[in-house]
Write a structure and sequence with these properties.
CATH superfamily: Tetratricopeptide repeat domain
Shape: globular
Number of domains: 1
Number of helices: 5
Strand content: under 5%
Helix content: over 70%
Structural class: mainly alpha
CATH topology: Serine Threonine Protein Phosphatase 5, Tetratricopeptide repeat
Largest sheet: none
CATH class: Mainly Alpha
Distance between the termini: 43 Å
Number of strands: 0
Length: 83
Amino acid sequence: MYTDLAEALVKLDRGSEAIAVLQKASELDPFNATLRKTLIVQLIQAKDYTHAKTEMEDYVKRFPQDSFMRQMLTRAQAAGRPQ
């Protein structure tokens, strides 16, 4: 339900409200992988990379079997390092 509401808000160009809904939903259901991925995508689209990285780190701790998200986190961590 929260994911559907967030998607509707995104379609209405209300991304910050969608993020708030997804954050609340992830507090209520922290082991819902789809919901957590949707939150990460919305944070990236909002260019809130710091929070997106934090959410990815938490996601990977909860779902270590998700190799795609582990790879995305590795890329995010590498992007934050000075060269």
